[in-house]
# Entry
Amino acid sequence: MMSSLCKTRLQEERKRWRKDHPFGFYAKPNKTVGGALDLQNWTAGIPGKSHTLWEGGVYPVTINFPDDYPSKPPKVKFPQNFYHPNVYPSGTICLSILNEEQDWRPAITLKQIVIGIQELLDSPNPDSPAQEPAWRAYGKDRATYEKKVKEQAQKYGAPAS
Amino acid sequence: MEQDDFDLDQVIGLVELLYSSRDPDQVIEVQKILQRFQKSSNSWYISNQLLLNDSINCKFFGALTYTVGINLHLGEFSTDLKFKIILELLNHVILLINENKNNTLFVIEKLLSNLAIIFVTSYKEWSYSLQSLYASLKNKNPQIINDSNINDFDSTYDMILLLFSQIVVEETSKLESSNVDKSNLHKFIHEKFFPITSALLFRTEMIKSLDCLGSWIQYISTAELESVERYDLSIILDHLLDLIILNNADISQRAINVTVDILDTNPSMLNKVLKNKLDSLIFGKWGVNYLQSLIEDHDFENINQFSRLVILFLETDIIHVAHLLADDANNEKFEFLLNLTNFPGIPIDEELISKDFIEFWSELAEAYVDDEDRLLVLLKNDTDQLMKLNQKATSIFQRVSSIYWSKIHIPVNVDDEEFKLYKEEFMSYRSDVADFFDTIYPIVKIAMYKNLIDTISNNISSAKPNFQDIEASLFLINSISSNFNEDNINTNILSYLTNILESNFFEIISSNNSNENKYTISTTIQFLSSIDFFYKHKIGLKYLPSILNFLFSCMLESNLYHLSSSKAICRISNDCRLSLVGYLPNFENLIVEMINNINILPIIRERIVNSYASIIQGIKNPEIQGKNLNILLGLINEKCVQLITNNQITNENTLNYLISLLNCIYEIGKGMQLPEDDVEDFYSQEEINLINEYWTNDSYNIHDKIIRIITEVSTNSSSPMLLNNTEIVEKCCLIFKTGLTESIEGPFVFKDETLIQYILTKSGSANINTMPFLFELFDAVITANYKTISPSLVSSTVDTIFLSRLPLIKTDPDLIESSIKILGTIVEKKPSLIIYNGNFTIIILHFCLENLSTSEKFILKSVSKFWSKLIVLKKGDKRDFEFISNLFLQEKLGVVLTYAVISNLLKSQRSNIDNFQEILKFLIVKYPLYVKNWLEDAFAKVNEERVNQRIDELKSYHVFIKKLIMTRGKTQAFQNVVKEYWLETNGLFNY
# Structure
């Protein structure tokens, strides 16, 4: 059961996002079958930074806020088998600001989270391997790594503009 | 710096040089020297002397040097010394004020800032800072006062006192909580400092004190957050609101700025009376006239600020605003808001008001959608009123949607340089509007959809269609479509869409392929992707061919649309495979082009082949499936053979083309997979029998054709470039994996022997980077077919790919990881497939023990899994269990493993503890009678080693063992005990 603190904070995050969010990103709560907002489950899109291998893609993530958010961090996931050294095969992102035992603080906002993930895309952390294929290629076969990242950017390509 | 080094003239010279030099290197050098002076024991003297110098540069640098000294040494000072510095600073303030020069204000501000820093950090010693400043100025003599009587103040120095007050609260806001007890400081400021400031503010012309008030507003927000202090600013703020309506634009605008700050940071500062006053200002005569005058003056900056004032004010109690709509007396208020939203001009480029209003209208809409209970309370439980409110809300949001529909139109000249300047922001605006439409859909519902569809229909039937109108409507429909699915779709919506598709919609859209129309085409593709609920419904099925034809033409026509249209084709083909069987011939020419044209982007080629295969899968008749696959694979094979035999793989481009062809086979495999988890949901038993029989016989030899292509590309020894290519092996393994999860026979379902043969053939390849893919394929074969695979086949494969190549495997962490992973999978799925291999106890266990000391996270994870599965032996039978128990108990594997786990656990990184915990937990659960002794032995041996290495022995391990055993492996308690002990032995603390 979502605490009132959690609900208030998520409403606040929604407001804050509306007021100020970075270009090219999107983030919104899912809707329940009845059309009401499901504030604990969001869908978001993270654009790859310009002039990086990730450019051109808008990478979808799901964000699940636990009942005891913001004491506990949200769980953020890319689609399964997303190709990145710090993303588990399940899609869960391994990032210190999303880890309760590392750098998560209740004051971290949704905007900071998605910008942190965007940053992670092109700056993988070799000390936190989460999946074997991308981590292996990143360390040993950079050409293959780059090819696969570019293919993935095409897969998640944004509409023409 | 030594006293002897000091020369005031030198300092003065350097200060002048600092502010006059244009050479950045020289400035840095001078700064370094001056910083040394500032930190020297002469700094107080230097500060004082510089302030007495006539040069304004020296005066400012003197004030700055005081700041350095205060920041560095204040904490060490006695009260007397602090007072001495305060008096010096006050003296300089007096001197500068009496000089009465225009250009000294910034020096005075710096001096007041120094006094403020001392005050906020030493307020218990120097409680009467304002009084001291006043008395010093009045008497022209620096003095420290211990009297709080404001009545003695005359107004001569009000402005300088207010400036000091302003700086004090600004400095307080900057203070780190760790440096000072902020809660007490806030209390002191509220009780002792604020009353004087308040009195000064009250008696001063508000226009002159707005900056001070602004800083106080910011400070109060922080103070109320950090303490229990609560301020009453009602009288001052009442004054402030009076300033808004003064007939002086400058004053009025500055007062609005402060009010906006209040609403943005701490709207609770405005009590009900003040809110009512502000409400009547904004929505009364003044608001209308003020806005009108700004419009006449084209004063866009202040129009934006006014709209921010309106929005922030209304958002302070959005539910209250929402309920006001029920009362017709408030209609004008809402008209005012609608007019403001509809401010003329292109958003972002010419106006920002409508952008700010998206947020307001979204908040208001959510109040109607999510807060009906609270609205009903505000309406005193009058359900008739609630009904009226909802009707009016529907009507008002229809009008809002109409405004935003116009606003998001793409400018006609998209190649205009000016548009490019604000394009990114404009697109973000459109996306915010799309979200807003999604938000208001539950209120306006189908009427909004119909309006959007009508604008499209009207334009299509018009002689001169407006493509911007069409684009805007499609763009917004895309956003609303997320509200629909096959189960909740309304028949009206289906019929609206039918009307569009029955018209010459595609013809019109395709008729204009100018660059200006690129957004319309792109948005139409998105639209076709977003209406899956439509084409999954029987009403929509008949439009699939025309939809696909349009998408194909877009894909082939321009690189602008090929990614999005191929994605849409792929999605539609997958979802509607059964309905598209008749469309298959339309693919044929395209497929030939896709496979034969090297210049097609690989992802496009692969998506189209996947789409084609999905439809073939939907045919259900295996004979026809086989026939189509035969043609498709024939095309691919022909091209592959041509590339290889003619030695055409000469560069990256041709190699990528060949790999893409291979990937097409993988896409065929994926397309041919059963779309449902349960085969009986898709086929009847009779059909299943027929399929099994057909694919066992395989009249078109599809299996052989696939193998032939794989062999030609991947095991052709005449082409070392292909033979050693890692990506080719990866793709071949992926092709083989597509059939492994299938529950009935099929074109990609191969015999285990075929797959193993490929693994064995390729594992002899020189390129060790391909090995992990082969190991993964072997792992997948075991996972899928462990029940039926022959033990001798597994055993011989392990011997060949693992044991015979062990020295090579040991050189590469990836090979170690993937080989241990397979061993873990075999032990997990069917231990008997490996444990009776003669080399299991001799080589395999030893290898897995060795790797407990690895620092590679992935290896540790797989080795942890291996040992955990071996201990638990979940899928083992009685014989397996006895065999493994014997190893642990009689052959002393338990002792050896426990020692390896404990010694490596204690040395491991914190993030790796979990992997050792897992093994330890299962040892405790599975061997409770033995594990205590094993642990005692392990710690004794660890201590022996520590003594040899001259490291302190571990003392408390007996307690640790006891605690560990008592947890009986229960996860949370067990983890805590291990973690605490690990922290203790590594001299760390939990945080």
